[in-house]
């Protein structure tokens, strides 16, 4: 199971509020969570929309497609030791990062069994500060897996939490997912704390279940159901 939680990434980073990393159309509506986060109505999210059409807006952030010119910045923070420590994917160059971006640009957002990466940008500066991955398992209808990575210099500001709350609202409210989950290395304490801060439950602890960077690693699975999200919202 890919891990991308890094704000601390599952083995993607989540918000290290260190590195967060979880390796990632229709209206968002007027849910309590949308109002709380300042999410905008009219967000593109139609069923089967292309990644280029997706946009999720929170109080400080915009989640949307990665663009070709993001490659140098993506390579910069994704190759940082604090970020890639718990990630499978480590770009070796800006060119490899650009190839990664181009390979996912034409994918429809809900294409199953594909990791879709969204940019996390600061609204005020239009600055790339991280990315979030979303995966719709082909053998698990109405479920979604996610991961998040935040650049080290932007961790500790609550940005990973804000991005995840916006993503969860989109997946449950707009995409009508029944269950959303993430997996994380238990040694990645900041990522574990982030998942718990957004209200996710620990469902499983698999011991030495994943061969990762030359050793057997444990794997924690966190999840949230649609009715749990509605209660929290």
What does this structure look like?
The chain is an alpha/beta fold and 233 residues long. It is built from 7 helices and 10 strands. The protein has helices at residues 32-37, 71-78, 81-84, 94-104, 159-174, 189-197, 226-232, and strands spanning 5-7, 13-15, 56-57, 61-65, 115-122, 127-135, 143-150, 179-184, 201-212, 215-225. Strands 1, 2, 3, 4, 5, 6, 7, 8, 9 and 10 form a 10-stranded mixed beta sheet that branches. Helix 5 links the parallel strand 7 (143-150) and strand 8 (179-184). Helix 2 (71-78) crosses helix 4 (94-104). The longest helix has 16 residues, at 159-174. It is globular and about 40 Å long. Mean pLDDT is 82; it is low at 6-19 and 23-46.
List the helices and strands and how they pair.
Layout: E1 5-7, E2 13-15, H1 32-37, E3 56-57, E4 61-65, H2 71-78, H3 81-84, H4 94-104, E5 115-122, E6 127-135, E7 143-150, H5 159-174, E8 179-184, H6 189-197, E9 201-212, E10 215-225, H7 226-232
Parallel strand pairs: 1-2, 1-7, 7-8
Antiparallel strand pairs: 3-4, 4-5, 5-6, 6-7, 8-10, 9-10
What percentage of amino acids are in beta strands? Answer: 25-35%
Shape descriptor reads globular
List the secondary-structure elements in sequence, H or E.
Answer: EEHEEHHHEEEHEHEEH
Q: Percentage of helical residues? A: 25-40%
Radius of gyration: 16 Å
Question: Helix tally?
Answer: 7
Query: Residue ranges: pLDDT <50 for 5 or more in a row?
Result: 6-19, 23-46
Provide the structure class.
alpha/beta
Distance between the termini: 29 Å
The total count of strands amounts to 10
Major beta sheet summary: 10 strands, mixed
pLDDT averaged over residues: 82
């Amino acid at each position: 199971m890919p891990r991308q939680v890094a704000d601390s990434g599952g083995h993607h980073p989540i918000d290290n509020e260190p590195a967060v990393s979880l390796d990632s159309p229709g209206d968002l509506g007027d849910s309590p969570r949308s109002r709380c986060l300042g999410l905008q109505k009219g967000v593109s999210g139609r069923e089967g929309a292309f990644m280029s059409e997706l946009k999720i807006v929170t109080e400080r952030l915009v989640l949307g497609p990665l663009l070709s010119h993001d490659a140098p910045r993506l390579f910069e923070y994704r190759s940082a030791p604090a970020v890639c420590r718990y990630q499978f994917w480590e770009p070796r160059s800006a060119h490899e990062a650009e190839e990664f971006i181009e390979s996912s640009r034409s994918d429809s957002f809900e294409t199953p069994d594909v990791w879709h990466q969204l940019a996390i940008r600061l609204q005020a500066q239009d600055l790339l500060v991280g990315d979030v991955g979303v995966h719709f398992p082909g053998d698990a209808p109405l479920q979604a897996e996610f991961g998040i990575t935040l650049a080290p210099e932007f961790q500790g500001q609550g940005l990973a939490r804000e991005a995840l709350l916006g993503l969860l609202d989109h997946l449950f409210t707009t995409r009508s997912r029944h269950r959303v989950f993430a997996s994380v290395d238990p040694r990645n304490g900041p990522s574990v704390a982030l998942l718990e801060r957004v209200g996710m439950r620990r469902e499983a602890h698999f011991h030495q279940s994943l061969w990762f960077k030359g050793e057997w690693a444990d794997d924690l699975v966190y999840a949230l159901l649609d009715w749990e999200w509605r209660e929290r919202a």
